[in-house]
Amino acid sequence: MEHVIETPGPRLPVRALRRIRLTRRKAPEQKRWRRSPLARLFSGVFALINRVVPWHRLPRPLGVLNLIALRGTMREHNLHDTSKLPSRAHSAPPPLTPEQLVRRSPDGTYNDVSNPRMGCVGARFGRNIPLERAWPEAEPGLLEPSPRIVSNQLMARETFVPARSLNLMAAAWIQFMVHDWFDHGTPRKGNEFRVPLDTARGDDWHQSPMLIRRT
């Protein structure tokens, strides 16, 4: 099955569209997580309330319950299970202890007692896109459209935009979180992405092609 997505080229008139062909590929069969009817009713009640009053405007006890309802809704409809994909071998989690019902374990097991390995050390992150719609694209299709052109023409700032609601501590905190959560492994030399420069539009990056280490 073939899908056609039309995306505008960088800095081009709307009529000048690029056509990128995507072929749907078969993905591992997924079993979607489903809540109980009572849990869905619980979330539905708060969804109606939130049409009038957002969760952060509710009294604190109701606001906490509202967050629980939102978490369940997002987990069911916004996350896709990746546990069936190939991964590193993991041993079975240890038996549940009474302490794990009131405290977090060092390796993160039993954060959810119904799914002991969810969110633990070495577990895959859930995806926001169905697995059948995500696959490793091969080169040269991976570089079309060029990430360098996208960066320069669509994402580059032409003027300074002050961040009036953040301070420098935010950057340090984000770096801490990302490097604490993810392990990209050690990139191998000679296995880089080779991104061509957009010299026709004056791209003067010091390296041509630009080499990006693979994770």
UniProtKB/TrEMBL annotation:
Which keywords are on file for this protein? Dioxygenase, Iron, Metal-binding, Oxidoreductase, Peroxidase, Plant defense
Region Disordered, annotated ranges? 81-115
Named from the GO MF annotations, one term is:
metal ion binding
Which GO terms fall under biological process for this protein? defense response; fatty acid metabolic process; response to oxidative stress
The record's section on Pfam families has: An_peroxidase (PF03098)
Q: What is this protein called?
A: Peroxidase
Organism this protein belongs to: Pyxidicoccus fallax
